Amino acid sequence: MNKGIAIAGTIAVDEIKLVDRYPKKTELTTISHMKRTVGGAVANCSLALSQIDSDILIETICILGEDEKGEYVYNQLKQKSNINVSNITFKGATPFTDVIQDQTDKTRTFYHYKGNASLFNEDTIDFSKLNSRILHIGYLLLLDGLDEKDAQYGTKMALLLKNAQEHGIKTSIDVVSENQNRYKQVVLPSLKYTNYCVINEYEASKITGITLREKDELLTKNIKKVLELLKSYGVKDWVIIHAPEGSFGYDGHEFVSLSSMIVNRHKIKGTVGAGDAYVSGVLYEANKGASMQEAMELGTITAATSLLKEDATSGILPYQQLLEALKDGEKHPMIKI
Fold this sequence. Notes:
- With about 325 residues, the chain is of the alpha/beta class.
- It has helices at about 40-50, 70-80, 145, 155-165, 185-190, 200-210, 225-230, 275-290, 290-305, 320-330, and strands at about 5-10, 10-20, 30-40, 60-65, 85-90, 95-100, 110-115, 130-140, 150, 155, 170-175, 195-200, 215, 215-220, 240-245, 245-250, 255-260.
- It is about 30% helix and about 30% strand.
């Protein structure tokens, strides 16, 4: 019986470097602290889910490099008894990201080395061996082997998602916030074979061509249009957009708007992986058969707790503690859409 959640795609080593402020070109800034942790959708979501529930089966599917970084990531994942690492293979060089965190405003900038990312393709996953209800794969625009065109389905990623659904597995996707204009070309074909599309406001804007933020102001008047348009591209179940101000969902019948949690800015240690933490909360409730609103609520509090540590996952609480924190925590004003 399918019971777990499979997490596939991008995995990396995050080299987190804290600086007093992000420098302008040609300027020098001082690194005040460094920390190494695992990163990418596979590591972030797998470890976040394990933090939420130490009993749920998590199946990781990725390609690590035959190097010291690959060994480091593998050892981090296998420490968790409920993370199945048997679908991990080793080839090439492990991707890594230099994460530069600005201490003045807690923003982060990423310098990513793709390494062996192009080796993950439509044939990497053996669906007959999976024991999961849901396959989450990320990130589109960062997996070169799956971003490639496919004559019949548009992209290799779309073909992979179609194959997953034909094996009775629901699919979930996430997109990387890149500063190029490939979103429609790469992402749109996959939406037809996606059950849960959970992305941020920047990515949603780039996919649809509808602006959701101007001069740091969230354009709430456009959110419904974007949700409806994304759903019209073929998403089967939920379209969810998350932003610092809140999150917004549409299942084809109902719109849900939730405000974000208020987190004391002095307690925020880092924002790396907050999006993956949000997705993990959503996936956990979806796997249980919960409503979209319940999934968004858990995503909201999971993302909030992830901010309390420098890495992406160690601040995340177990499920019951997350629910208590959601109930007791202070929220930003409700946003109407």
